[in-house]
TrEMBL record:
CDD domains, per the entry: MFS_FucP_like (cd17394)
Membrane topology: Multi-pass membrane protein
Short name of any one Pfam family annotated for the protein: MFS_1
Lineage: Bacteria, Pseudomonadati, Bacteroidota, Bacteroidia, Marinilabiliales
Subcellular location, record wording: Cell inner membrane
Coiled coil region boundaries: none
TM regions (residue ranges): 12-29, 53-74, 81-98, 143-166, 201-218, 247-269, 281-302, 309-330, 336-355, 367-387, 393-415
Alphabetical UniProt keywords: Cell membrane, Membrane, Transmembrane, Transmembrane helix
Top-level taxon of origin: Bacteria
Entry protein name: L-fucose:H+ symporter permease
Main location (coarse class): membrane
């Protein structure tokens, strides 16, 4: 009888720890940025729709750079792809300094776009790198374990957003609408508030540079496929792979649902009379639930088929978002918070299922799944358009807008069902 494969073998432990730390690093960037939609809306006097250009740039950068990142990693190595990603990440974060000096919303948007080029390199290389560090029998569990540290970074990002940014915005402290203030007061507040937004990103850029140096000097196993695979041939094979193709669609739906639920929880809370800061506290509770559920679901995956568990978690997401739509008041907000429990396993599990049988096309397949993060660029803008209506039928518009993540969970549940019926081994 053969002994069960370890999730992480001893020889891969140091690389696993270092690369897993990057999951927390990009989680921080994701979730300090989501609340910036509400912050920029007030400080720069924007509509909900225009403020979501923050999300469009942030998640659009993934779509722009995922395939170049895959080609780079395929030609060179996962390590070199990670180092380039860290360099771009640091550059985008440090550009917040001149953006605040010029007080241009477009400069901030461009800085985030460059920052996300780096994240695209990191996710395109780090996810398949983790999958490759050991037996394929434990690859999905190993990725779930690594991804469990992503929400820890996200939680820290939320704390910084709430305590360092949202709590210190002068634009929210006058007791009246910011746009009604005189020009001199608005100018002073804007100068102060853009510096408040700037500083965490500049500090983040410096931390990223430190990580770049550490990873540069540590030897990493070269587990990338070294065969000379023509990218067009790889793409053709992936497009013919039904499980992979549908996995990309499911990943688009998941990322869209996650970003919508975590971005607009603040607006949902504000509609109930709560402050931005209190809305962000509810977001932090949601993230705490997400973290606990991510570790729990990693354990459960040892006993339950990944596709089947994905389906049931998606059904749970459908239920809680329905509550957020139709229950007006704090119970609806609590339903929205609880949705994070069911989102917890989705990204790495869809990722592992979709790449389960792509063979030497793993690197290009990873790029397609990272490009799926573009769902976080498009769908929040559509949700913001709904919210700008203020009411939809008998419901507040912010409640009605959560029909979009509900539909996303329907897509994910169907993918779980289909991949389970195909008896795919995750």
């Amino acid at each position: 009888m053969t002994s069960p494969s370890k999730i992480v073998e001893k020889k891969y432990l140091v690389p696993f720890i270092l690369i897993t730390s990057l999951f927390a690093l990009w989680g921080f960037a994701n979730d300090i940025t989501n609340p910036m939609v509400a912050a920029f809306k007030t400080v720069m006097e924007l509509t909900h729709t225009k403020a979501t250009l923050i999300q469009f740039a942030f998640y659009g950068g993934y779509a722009t750079m995922a395939i170049p990142a895959a080609l780079f990693a395929q030609k060179y190595s996962y390590k070199k792809g990670i180092l380039l990603g860290l360099g771009l990440y640091a550059t985008g974060a440090l550009l917040f300094y001149p953006a605040a000096q010029f007080q241009l919303f477009g400069f901030f948007v461009g800085s985030l776009y460059i920052l996300t080029f780096g994240l695209a390199f990191l996710e395109t290389t780090a996810n398949p790198f983790i999958l490759s560090l050991g037996s394929s029998d434990t690859s999905t569990r190993r990725l779930n374990l690594a991804q469990s540290f992503n929400p820890m970074g996200s939680f820290l990002g939320m704390i910084v957003a709430a305590k360092v940014v949202l709590a210190n915005l002068e634009a929210d402290k006058h007791g009246v609408d910011f746009s009604s203030l005189d020009a001199a007061t608005k100018a002073a507040d804007r100068l102060h508030d853009l510096a408040v937004i700037r500083d965490p990103y500049v500090a983040l850029g410096l931390v990223v540079l430190v990580m770049l140096v550490i990873i540069a000097v540590v030897k990493m196993p070269d587990t990338a496929h070294q065969e000379h695979i023509h990218p067009l041939q790889s793409i053709k094979r992936l497009l013919k792979n039904k499980v992979y193709r549908k996995g990309v669609v499911a990943q688009i739906a998941y990322v869209a649902a996650q970003i919508m639920c975590w971005t607009f929880i603040i607006q949902y809370a504000e509609n109930l009379g709560l402050s931005k800061e209190m809305g962000q506290y509810h977001n932090m509770v949601a993230m705490g639930m997400f973290i606990v559920s991510r570790f729990a679901s990693t354990l459960i995956l040892k006993y339950i088929n990944a596709s089947k568990l994905l389906m049931w978690f998606a059904i749970g997401g459908i239920t809680t978002t329905a509550g957020a739509i139709f229950i007006v008041g704090l119970p609806g907000l609590y339903c929205l918070v609880a949705t994070s429990i069911f989102m917890s396993l989705m990204f790495p599990t869809i990722y592992g299922i979709a790449l389960g049988n792509v063979g030497t096309d793993t690197t290009m397949g990873s790029a397609g799944l990272v490009m799926a993060i573009v769902g976080g660029a498009i769908m929040p803008m559509l949700q913001a358009v709904i919210i700008d209506f203020e009411t939809v039928g008998f419901l507040p518009a912010v409640n009605a807008s959560f029909i979009l993540p509900l539909l996303c969970f329907v897509v994910i549940a169907n993918y779980g069902r289909q991949s389970y019926r195909l008896n795919l081994k995750p």
